[in-house]
Amino acid sequence: MCSSAMGSYTSSVILSVVMKITSKNGKPEWVPANLNDGHLDRFFFLCAALTALNLVFFCFLC
Question: Using an 8 Å Cβ cutoff, are 27 and 39 in contact?
């Protein structure tokens, strides 16, 4: 339960950071309220890249 909770907190922090960074200069953010206007695919590719990085780090430590 603790690892699930930490995963949820980490996910919300990553989402907040991505939304702040991608909404600069009047551009629509990656994850707007209306999902049809955003780039949700880019957010999922970012999550996939972070997961792959986590796998590499895990294999290195093992």
Answer: no
- DSSP class per residue in 1-40: -HHHHHHHHHHHHHHHHHHHHHTGGGPPPSS-SSGGGS-H
Measured in degrees and rounded to the nearest 5, phi and psi for residue 58 equal -60, -45
Range of the domain at 31: 2-61
Q: Copy the structure tokens of residue 60.
A: 């290195």
pTM: 0.71
What does the alpha-carbon distance between residue 43 and residue 3 come to, in Å, rounded to a whole number? 22
The predicted-structure confidence for 3-32, as pLDDT tens digits, reads as follows 888 888 988 898 888 888 888 777 778 888
Domain count, the chain: 1
